[in-house]
Amino acid sequence: ELMRLDLQLVILGTGMKEYHDLLAQAAAKHPEKVGVKLAFDNRIAHLIEAGADMFLMPSRYEPCGLNQLYSLRYGTLPVVRETGGLADTIQDDDPATHQGTGFRFKEYTPEALLGAVRRALDAYHNPPVWQAMMRRAMTADFSWGSSAKKYAALYEKAVEKRRGSGFGIRG
Known about the structure:
Helix content is 51%, strand content 12%. The protein is mainly alpha-helical. The termini are far apart.
C-alpha cells in the first residue's frame, strides 16, 4: 500500500533477518521508491533525518526515544505510533486546526500506520500548513531547563496542597 502512495522511503538500520530480507526485496522491486542500508551509522542517520520531509517511527514500544526529538529540531515531521515517549513528545495534527507537530496513530496495525502517512501526505501537499507545522516542530522545547521548570511548578503545587491539608509541611 505504501508503494502506491506518492512517497519515497529511505531506511537505515539493523534488526531481525526476516525484516532485512523483506526490505531488500522491497528495494529490489521498487528501486525508485525504496532505498535501504542495513547498517548502523549515526552520521548517515542524522543526514537522512535532516534531509527528509518526514520521519516514520511506528514503534510498538518506545520508552523514550531521541529520533523524534532530532526530527522535530530538523523540521522533519514525525509519523509515530502513540506510545511512550512518542506520545509524550509529538502533538498529533488536527486536520481542522493544523496545530500539531507531527502525526500519531494508536493501533499497531498496517491500516492505522497507512492512515497516518496519508494524513501527513495531505498536509505536505498544503505548503502553508506544512511550513507552519515545521516551524512549530523546530521550536518545540524538550530541554532539561523546560522540564525542570515544569517539575518545580508541580512540586510547588504539591507543597501548597499539602500545606492546605493541615498535614506535614509547615511554612
